[in-house]
Please model this.
Amino acid sequence: MSCPLNHSFGMRVLRSTLFLGATVVLQNGFTFAKEIETNIEQHHCTAMVCVPASIEVIYRQMQERFAEIIGRFRYIEFGAGSASVDMKKKLLALLPHTRLFNTWALRRHVALCS
Model:
């Protein structure tokens, strides 16, 4: 999980994940691309939750390895804002097997599905 726990989005994700009995891996910020790869390998992470700005930073940090590493996730959920149109297009092209959800405000919006 790469979103602040003091934000309602982070708390909602944490509560619902624990309620379902799943494991939450808290990452030390979103600016450490290598830590994401390590968490996927060590903890067998299958999803990532983040704010839109996080995925943009991760994309810049990973560059050519982005699709290989992030493409391992079954889904990515963005919250607390909308991802840019350019980033959505990049993600759809680079991650054809990863479901993308943009949840924002009080209702759930499925903005992208692969």
About this structure: The longest helix spans residues 8-19. The beta strands are 47-50, 75-78, 99-102. The mean pLDDT is 82. The two ends are 21 Å apart (CA to CA).
